[in-house]
Amino acid sequence: MTDTGHLHHHEEHLHSSDFISDIVIGMADGLTVPFALAAGLSGAVASSSLVVTAGIAEIVAGSIAMGLGGYLAGRTEADHYESERRREVDEVERVPEREKQEVRDVFAEMGLSTDLQNVIADELAKDKTKWVDFMMKYELGLDEPDPNRATKSALTIGVSYVVGGLVPLMPYFLVKLPHEALLYSCVVTLVCLFIFGYFKSKVTGQPPFSGAVKVMLIGALAAAAAFGVARLFG
Amino acid sequence: MTDTGHLHHHEEHLHSSDFISDIVIGMADGLTVPFALAAGLSGAVASSSLVVTAGIAEIVAGSIAMGLGGYLAGRTEADHYESERRREVDEVERVPEREKQEVRDVFAEMGLSTDLQNVIADELAKDKTKWVDFMMKYELGLDEPDPNRATKSALTIGVSYVVGGLVPLMPYFLVKLPHEALLYSCVVTLVCLFIFGYFKSKVTGQPPFSGAVKVMLIGALAAAAAFGVARLFG
After folding, report:
1. What pTM value is reported for the model?
2. What would the mean pLDDT of B160-173 be, rounded to a whole number?
3. 3-state secondary structure of A30
4. So what's the pLDDT on residue A9?
5. Best of B109, B110, B196, B231 to mutate (most A CBs within 10 Å, chain A)
6. Which residues of B touch A69 (CB under 8 A)?
7. Structural domain boundaries of chain A?
């Protein structure tokens, strides 16, 4: 029971991880980059409204770039899987002996004896669909992707980026002086980065407290560097 | 010969892809987000120097956030591999029968007969290192990560982001009026996005021309949206 429990746990982890990892991708950058940009501009311009304009432009730019980037990545993965599968189906038909040797090679790499390699290759060759499935997964290391992955991925990443990006920008809507707004923005965003880092680490099975501190430090470092450099150029 | 050529090609592809994919990650966002931010601000502010300040702040923020994000991802992958490996070593020692069943489960999922599953599990169990290697790769789907991956990844992503981000910003250093600079920035960046998209598609085995067009369109769309939204708020 512990046995199947262990395997089941692993599979569940893989299932939920597409959606969760898209949220993590979008929100990690959404909380960090607009925060650091706003902080950088706070050291270089006189009015919060300019920070808001730049921040909004960044959120739009970042969410579209990351969202459509996620869409393309998803489409590319699906196209790649399809074209590789067509090739394997064709090869199993055209050059079965060569494909059988590839099955043997996979098991040779696992450290199995030549006898066993032959028996396995013969058994798999009996069912062509199974054979192709095997080649896809174990020779090429490809899992069949979810057909709606690209669209879901684009939306999840884009929305997460917007939600994350509005957090550091909020104070600049409400406080006129960018230096003052920056203080509130730091407090609010660092708290959110800590909470985000905590849950992100929990989900990915890392120690949550040190993970939270690391995520928060990256945000603080990016903001401090942007502040310093923008001041030099501003 | 074609056979090993095929496998060899596949492995080479996997080898080079860490470095290449880091360049792609950094440069895709570096070319797109600062470009769109600069375009957005060009519709809302009167002086190119402000666009330069915001652009520099964004490049610093983005390269640190993405670079350190890549570092954390690399460290997390390495830590995860180590902790899973320790657990498998421990389980092979403590509950060998359960682990043998997990080996059989892997081959049952491949569609092999119960007899073969038993023979394979017995053979693998003879060498504990091989056995743990097998569990890591085929039960958990984990490959041993490069120990320097995190640092290399951080530097490659960060530098690629800076290089990409300076392209759309260059015209604003040279041309005073942001509206004028935007024109040059569009031409230079869209050409670079096309070239980048072309090579990216070649490397990932996609049709290069349509890939180049897609990457260029994402950049143009992000820039147009940022321009429109910043104008509303500016």
Report:
1. 0.77
2. 96
3. helix
4. 37
5. B110
6. 28-29, 32, 218
7. 18-233
